[in-house]
Amino acid sequence: MTQNKNEEAKNFFIKALKVNNQILPAKISLAGYYEQSGIFEEAKKIYKEILEIDPSYTLADKSLSLIHKYKLNDNHIKTMEEKLTKNISEEGARRLNFALGKAYEDIGHYQKSFKFYEHGNKLYKKVINYNIKNEIKSFDKIKKFFINNKIESLEDYGQKIIFILGMPRSGTTLAEQILSSHKKVYGAGELNFLKVAVEKKLMTKDGEFILNSENLKEAKNYYLKNIEIYKNKEEFFIDKAPLNFKWVGFIKAIFPNSKIIHCVRNPMDICWSNYKNSFASRSLDYTYDFNDLASFYKLYDDLMKFWNKNFDTNIFNLIYEDLVKNKEAETKRLLKFCGLEWDNNCLDFHKNKNSVATASLAQIRQPLYSSSVEKWKNYSDELKVLKERLIN
Question: CA geometry: angle at 201 spanning 212 and 197, to 5°?
Fold first, then answer.
C-alpha cells in the first residue's frame, strides 16, 4: 500500500483471510485499506470483528476511534476504560489514552478528554529519546548554509512537481486532495524521497552540505527514479510530505520549476492538533510535549520566514482559515499559481477516491467545514502553558 498499489494489497489480504479468517495482521491491514479509501462502515465492521477475536488488540481500538463519532454512553468508551484498569501493555495503554481523548472530545467532555490526551503523551514521551537541541542545530545549519552560499540551480527537469509542505496538521492533506481532484494532477501522498536525496546526495558524512551541479543532478535522478514506482501518467505530480519545509532551498536548487505550496494555519490549532494525535513517524517525536512542540513550531516559523524572504514568488502560502471562508476564490488562486486551468472537481475534493493515510483521513471525506478553526479554545484553560510558550 505504500506504493499506491492499494487494490493489489487488498486482494492479498482477502486471499489470506480466506485461508484463515482470524489472521489479525491481515484483518487490520484490510480494515486499514477500507479506512484509507473512505469506506468507513466496512472498516468499522472489521475492527469490531478483531476486538471480538482479541479484545487486547488495541490497535483496532485506536484505529476505530479515528473514524467513529462518539455519543454519550457509547459502549466502546466503556470497554476501553475497562481495558485500562486491567494488566495491559504500555503500548496498549498509549493507544487507548489517545482513543479515549478523541472519544470524550466528540461528546464535549473536554477536561476528561484532555486528561486522557495528556496521559497518552506522557506515556509516549517516556519511551522516545528526543532532544530538541538536535533540531535547533539542524535548522541553524540549513539557514547558515543558504546565507553564506550562492547556489546555482539545475535547469528544467521535465516532470512538473508540486511540493505541499508545512507543519503537520496545517491543512496539507486538504491541499493535496483539492489539487489531486484536478484531471491533470496525480497525488502520491507523503514521500520521504526528497529527505533521503538531500541527506544521501547533498551531505557529507560529517553532516555538511555540498551543492554543486554534479551532486544536485544525483539528487534529482535519485528522486525521479524513486517516484517511477507510482507510474504517474498525469502532467503534474504531488509530493505531500509536510516536513519538506526544511528543504525548500534544496527543492529550488534541484527542481527550480517546481511549485511549492506552504500550508499556513493558526499556531495554536496546529500545535494542539499535533499533541492530540499519535504518529508512527519518529520525525514527529516533538509532538508529545508542550515545550518541544512550541520550540519546534518556532523553528519551523523562523525557517519559513527565511524561505519566503528568499523565494517569495516561488512559494504559495495557502492559509487554512482563508480557504475555509472562501473555498472557491482560494482554490482558483491555488490553481493559477500551479499553472492549472479551472476544474470544478477541485471543489468536490471530498469525493476524491485517492487513498488517505494521514490523521485527516476522516475529515477529508467531508465537505469543507469551519468547526476546526480555533478548536483549541475548547481546551483554553488546559492550553494556557502552550500558548505562553508559543508567544514567549
Answer: 120
